[in-house]
Amino acid sequence: MLTGHFDVLIVGAGLSGIGAAWRLQRQRPGDTYAILEARDAIGGTWDLFRYPGVRSDSDMYTLSYPFRPWREPESLASGAKIRRYIQETADEASITDKIRFGTRVTRAQWSSAESRWTVHTNSGDQMTCDFLYGCAGYYDYSHGYQPDFPGLGDYAGRLVHPQSWPDDLDWSGKRVVVIGSGATAVTLVPAMAPAAAHVTMLQRSPTYVTPLPDRDAVAVLARRLLPPKAANRVARAKNILLTQAFYQLARRRPQLVRRALRGIAVRFLKDPGYVDKHFKPRYDPWDQRLCVIPSGDLYRSITEGRASVVTDHIDTFVPEGIRLKSGTVLEADVVVSATGLSLLPVGGIELTVDGSLVDVGGTVSYRGLMLGGVPNFAYCIGYVNASWTLRADLSHRYMLKLLDHMDQHDLAAATPVAPPGTGRPLLDLSSGYVQRALDRFPRQGERDPWIIRQNYLRDALTTPRADVTRDMTFTPRPTRTPDFPAPSSSAPTSPVAAPPGPASPGPEPSAATLPSPAAPSPAAPSPTSPGPESPAPIPPGPTALAASSPSLTSSAAASSAPTSHSAAATAPTSPGTAATAPISPSTAATAPISPSTAATAPISPSTAATAPISPSTAATAPISPSTAATAPISPSTAATAPSSSVLPSPVTSSKVV
After folding, report:
1. Residue 106, SS3 per DSSP
2. Which residues are paired to 433 by β-bridges?
3. Mean pLDDT confidence for 601-628
4. How confident is the model at residue 422 (pLDDT cuts 50, 70, 90)?
5. pLDDT for 68-89, tens place per residue?
6. Sheet holding 329-331: strands in order across?
7. φ/ψ (deg, to 5) at 595
8. Of 358, 471, 453, nearest in space to 132 by CA
């Protein structure tokens, strides 16, 4: 059975989860953590997807970790190489031993009373943690999106989905139809074309595609001239600048980018009419994610006659294939439904806060990684217009910065508090797979830190300097009751811990610490006479604890009638009296020394030693705060009646609740 308490629990052992663990153990080596992975292997998305040709559509110099440079020759790597890279990173950093495989998180319950999460798994195990970090991405790993095609039961061939690719599928010499036009479809077509009789990509509408070289010329040159880490930084910086510049240009000058992409397609396919029919979308570039084709492999498969594109709508499946709205029948032995993915917010974990179910779709995203109103929880998602890892790594570093701040200020919980009037979609894409799930994802706001910008350069500059306290409410850690020494045999007592209360000014300074106006040049202190800048010595025993502990009180003092402040104001003892005649027990109950009197005529140590307040008096008439500042209590008195009014309470600020 998996049990135990951890400082941090990370959900997911993919690209994000391993990166988070690396950062965590490097920056906070004393923290305990574990990674909960539903699958039986490292890799996440790159372990799940095994369809032909699966690869990155981001360059590996930005998709790889900044702390572990990519050293392979390919700029666009296969899924197998990416999976191996993640595994090697985990092994080298001794992260693999922290992973609990086959552990799917189903529920997580936050308790404000305990300031911790209780995490439930599919096997019924429970663990607790102070901070929960979801790094499982936003894909539903259990299934992809499968439309309800008419007549599907009549089809005599084989239908497969890329997310559940069968190991025994043989398409050699067969007619293949790939339904879809997204990243998966444009990857599958050129990968299956060499062995198939023919591959047809059936799409309802065109998608923007752009060729990228599978080898980076700048990276190759940099590796020849520079050390490996420096060469990787050069390639990484170049690709970040180019991708960000292209995205900004596409959003600001969409018509210019449309013409450029069309020109590239015409140059590859040599047929403007074919391009306008099948590769000229109605929407602007980056309204949907741009698809990458390594070295133009899709275009090459089309020009070689091994693949083709059909733009039409499905009418129904028939035994021999698919009949289209135009009446054309596409004969197919194998149909691949590359119709998209299903998105799942926060890894599908059911979150509750103090027994109340969190409606993730009704929350607002704080900095794109926390949820308004949900304490000590973060989730990791990447950019839609750049490499996933760029944003994921910024999220890891911000999360650790928040944990450091909480430790430095002795805080137990951090809860984002969303401003009113927020409601923009989290993801600014019109793609079908995004639109189908938007209502289940948190929203974003109209200002920082509730707005999400798809701009790595801006985020890289602002995130390290971000104010972790902005729009954040913190809860202090509970004050622990100190251990008590054995009470005096002459005055047994049972100290009781006081519950935390509102902010209080704390005890007034001892009169012995205030200089007398009649003695501007005090003599040097002696062992038996403290100087004017030194606090009066407190005898050992419970009195010392009462002076330093914010959680002490006395049942005797709590049950008695304390002397009022007004009494202290109306009947102060005169300076002369304080110096020559110590207060008797009866006097202490009716005429406490006022703060002003204490400032001008402190009780001398010798007086305090010869005339302490008796235990019986303390039990029936506890000393008021002003009196406590001027009349030291003897050990026996402190043991029977420590005054809770002079003890400090936990202090909270405007950002602490």
Report:
1. strand
2. none
3. 37
4. low
5. 999 999 999 999 999 999 999 9
6. 314-318, 321-324, 329-331
7. -60, -40
8. 358
CATH architecture of the domain 152-337 equals: 3-Layer(bba) Sandwich (3.50)
Q: Which amino acid is at 74?
A: E
The predicted model scores a pTM of 0.73
Task: For residues 129 and 21, give the distance between their C-alpha atoms in angstroms, rounded to a whole number.
Answer: 15
Name the nearest CA neighbour of 495 among 562, 563, 549, 539.
549
Residue 377 has what pLDDT?
Answer: 99
pLDDT in tens, 456-508: 999 999 999 999 999 999 999 986 544 444 444 333 333 333 334 333 334 33
- The structure tokens listed for 597 are 């009197």
For the chain, give the mean pLDDT: 79
CA pair distance 314, 177, nearest whole angstrom: 12
pLDDT for 428: 75
Residues of the chain with CATH 3.50.50.60: 5-142+343-476, 152-337
Tokens of residue 499, six digits: 């519950």
Nearest to 281 by CA among 335, 203, 216, 222: 203
User: Quick one: which of 243, 526, 562 has its CA closest to 384?
Assistant: 243
Rounded CA-CA distance 155/245 in Å is 47
- Which CATH number is correct for 5-142+343-476, 3.50.50.60, 3.40.1160.10, 3.40.50.12780, 3.40.1640.10? 3.50.50.60
103 touches 121 (CB < 8 A): yes
